[in-house]
Amino acid sequence: MLLKIIIFLVINFTALGLGSYFTSTAVTADWYQNLNKAPWTPPGWVFGAAWTTIMICFAVFMAYAWQLNENRNLLIALFVLQWILNVSWNPVFFKYHQVLFGLIIIVLLTVLMGYFFFAYFGQLKAKTLWVLPYFIWLLVATSLNAYILVKN
Q1: What Å distances lie between residue 26 and 2, 81, 94, CA to CA?
Q2: Ramachandran category for residue 97: left, alpha or beta (phi over 0 → left; psi -120 to 50 → alpha)
Q3: pLDDT score at 19
Q4: What is the CATH number of the domain that holds 114?
């Protein structure tokens, strides 16, 4: 079990590393700084803390899901889709300034994480709670992206 958690941690933190490549200087760039952002936008440090926590929790969930799920092909396909959506949002939003396309990506990711929670709850029971930080954070992040789309 520990080995599976470590493998998913490495994969998840690779996604975070790629994402931070596009956000590190972009959050201080003129384009982002001049956007009309939601009043509930958290300070910058919260994003790093939230994503670190989320990826740890999601790695634990995936290790349990891998161990207890019979349809591993579907599980891995969903995980890969999650990874692609997660990583792609950063350059779409921060590098290419495609706020609408970013919103579409983050909505799809939010729906996918909701699917992880509800589809696996019957099988994994309380272990699906490991997905909740990701899902809840995506609800907040989706609202931030939507606010920027509407107000700019």
Answers
A1: 35, 25, 6
A2: left
A3: 83
A4: 1.20.1260.100
Mean pLDDT, rounded, of the chain = 94
Q: How confident is the model at residue 25 (pLDDT cuts 50, 70, 90)?
A: confident
- Closest Cα to residue 9, out of 46, 53, 47? 53
For the chain, how long is the longest CA-to-CA vector?
Answer: 49
Looking at per-residue pLDDT, the higher value among 78 and 27 belongs to 78
CA distance linking residue 152 with residue 119, whole number of Å? 36
pLDDT per position as a tens digit, 126-140: 999 999 999 999 999
Q: Do residues 67 and 1 lie in contact, with contact meaning Cβ atoms separated by under 8 Å?
A: yes
88-110 residues labelled b (16+ CB within 10 A) or e (exposed): bbbbbbbeeeebeebbebbeebb
Domain assignment of residue 56, given as a range: 2-151
Rounded to two decimals, the pTM is 0.94
The rounded distance, in Å, linking the Cα atoms of 88 and 22 is: 10
Q: How many domains does the chain have?
A: 1
Contact call for residues 85 and 115 (beta carbons, < 8 A): no
